[in-house]
């Protein structure tokens, strides 16, 4: 899960452009162009560095595109805090997606972990595992709600620097906390004797060593 979410390095990459925006905005005497220029320049440098270290071009371009779109929104509205509007909308959409996935009994945590473990949809045949993943998914939905509860008042109040501080504080530290808490929730939600995440109940057990041939069995 940590690797899928980018780890600490991914969190740093995501927070550097907003920090650069605030620095440029302050250095330019609350100049919107100063903030936008600093953020886009930082995004371009990060994209070049990530390509050199071998990151997938698609993910690099998506990250750079997000910075450019945030900059365009701020320039279009003329409000520095609107540089963070895309982040607010993204968190709102994520909170909704996690909640809906739980309601329709396709909890996103199960989808992600199942894909990592190569289970596809086999985990859904295990009611106990579906329930555990649903409870763990509520932890992740809560992280997006928490971000919104912090970001929205700061955005409405025009608090640019406070938004940057909140963005940094609620990125990797919050993700690490959600990883730990959701793991505990899943483990405590599974009944005693459950075979675990890697072996959903009702799925055929993995083969144990080489199987004898029919001829050998007949002999």
UniProtKB/TrEMBL annotation:
Residue segments, region Disordered: 196-219
Compositional bias segments (type: Pro residues): 202-213
InterPro entries tied to this protein: UCP010219
Pfam family, one: DUF3159
Domain of life: Bacteria
Transmembrane segments: 20-47, 59-75, 95-117, 138-156, 162-186
Keywords linked to the UniProt accession: Membrane, Transmembrane, Transmembrane helix
Protein name, per record: DUF3159 domain-containing protein
